Amino acid sequence: MLESKSIRDQYLISILSVATVSLLGLAVRDFIDYKIIGYLLLVLVSFLAIFFEIKPVLLGAILSALTLDFLFIKPYYTLHIDNAQDALLLLLFFIITLINAVLTYKIKRMQKVIHMKEAKANTMKLYNTLLDSLSHELRTPIAAIVGSIDTLQQKNVNLSNDSKENLLNEIEKASFKLNYQVENLLNMSRLESGYIQPKLDWCDVKEIIYNVSNRLAEELKQHKLVISIEDNLPLFKLDYGLMDQIIYNLIYNASQYTPKGAKIQINVRHEVDTDYDSHIDVIKKCVITIKDDGYGFPEDEIDKAFDKFYRMQNSKTGGTGLGLSIVKGFVEVQNGTIKLSNDEEGGAVFEMIFPVDCLMINTVENE
C-alpha cells in the first residue's frame, strides 16, 4: 500500500512539475525561443529520471512533448505543426527525452544493484568475521568445560580435593565466559531489532559498580582497580540491567586489553547544569568515567572503536568486537552519550553522561 501511494505521488509530481515549467514558459513565451523551453523540459525529465520510477518519468516525457507542441510551437493551442522543421525538432525532442529518461533510469538501477551487492558483500564480511571470532571465543570455554568434566568423570584417575576444586573453578570460569559471549550476541540482536525499551527506576550506581567488580574478580586479579565515587551520591533513574551490562563490558574490556599490573579507575559523580540568571537547576547528570593506564587506542581507530565486530588491528586478544558497540547502544537507548579518548599520560578514557532524575539518599533514609 505504501509503495502504491509512493508511485501515485510520483505521477502527481511529474504532472505538476511539467505544468509548473510550462506555466513559467508561457509567461515568457513572447520573449524567448521555444527551443529554450524544450531544453528546460528536457532537464526536468532528466531530474525526474534520477529520483522516480520509469513509468512516472515516461509520463513526464510524453506530457513535456505534448506541452511543447501545444503551447510553444506555432500555431498555438493545437497539435498541428505548419512546417517540417518544427515537426522534426519536436520528434527529436520526444526521442531524446525518452532515451534520456530510460538511460538515466537504467543507470540509477545499475547503481542500486551495485550498492546492494556491496552492502551484501560487507554484510557477509562482517558475519564471516563474527563466525571466525566465535569459532575461537566459544570453542575455548566449551573445550575447557568438556575437558574438565571428562577428567572428573574418569574413574581410573584419583584426583585430590584441590585438583577437583581447580577443575570445578575452570568449569565455572569457562561457563561465565561462554555466558558473556552469548549475552553479547543476544544483546546485539535486541539492539538491532529495536526491541529494547529501558525500564527506568531508582538505581544505586555505586552498588552496580561493586557488584560488577566482584563478578570480575578473577579477570581483575592481575590489575589494580581504583573506585572513586562522590560522597552522598544520589540514586539515579536508570535501567539497572542495562547499566550492569555497560559497566561489566567496559571493565571486562579494560581487563582484557591492558597489561598485567595496569590500573583501572572508575569515577562516578553527579553534575547539575544551572541557569545562573534564574538560579534554577536545568539538567541533572550522572557522569561515569572509566579509564586505564594501558596502551590506549590508536588515533586512527578511535572513531571505529564502537563499530560492530570491530577489533583493533594490533590486538593480541580475541573477542567478537561486540562489547563496545553494545555499550554504545545501551547508553544511547537511555538518552546518554559516550565518548572515547586517550589520556595524556597513556591509556583509554570512556566517559558516559546520562541526563537523569535524581533522588538524594538522605531523603530515602528519612522516609
Report, as a whole number of angstroms, the end-to-end distance: 57 Å
Helix-strand pattern: HHHHHHEHHEEHEEHEEEH
| Total strands | 8
**What percent strand?**
5-15%
Backbone shape: elongated
Oligomer: single chain
Helix content: 55-70%
**SS summary, helix count:** 11
Structural class: alpha+beta
Radius of gyration over alpha carbons? 33 Å
Give the low-confidence spans. Answer: none
Write the layout of secondary structure elements.
Elements (H helix, E strand, L loop, with lengths): L1 H26 L6 H18 L2 H19 L11 H54 L1 H15 L7 H33 L7 E3 L1 H11 L1 H4 L3 E6 L5 E4 L1 H17 L6 E13 L4 E13 L30 H11 L3 E6 L5 E8 L2 E2 L1 H6 L1
Parallel strand pairs: 2-4
Antiparallel strand pairs: 1-3, 3-8, 4-5, 5-7, 6-7
Task: Describe this entry's structure for a reader.
- The chain contains 11 helices and 8 strands.
- It has helices at 2-27, 34-51, 54-72, 84-137, 139-153, 161-193, 205-215, 217-220, 240-256, 323-333, 361-366, and strands spanning 201-203, 224-229, 235-238, 263-275, 280-292, 337-342, 348-355, 358-359.
- Strands 2-4-5-7-6 form a 5-stranded mixed sheet. The protein has a 3-stranded antiparallel sheet with strand order 1-3-8.
- The protein is elongated and about 110 Å long.
- The mean pLDDT is 81.
Kindly list the characteristics that best describe this protein.
single chain; 5-stranded mixed beta sheet; alpha+beta; 3-stranded antiparallel beta sheet; 367 residues; 58% helix
Overview in brief:
58% of the residues lie in helices and 15% in strands. The chain contains eleven helices and eight strands. It has helices at residues 2-27, 34-51, 54-72, 84-137, 139-153, 161-193, 205-215, 217-220, 240-256, 323-333, 361-366; strands spanning 201-203, 224-229, 235-238, 263-275, 280-292, 337-342, 348-355, 358-359.
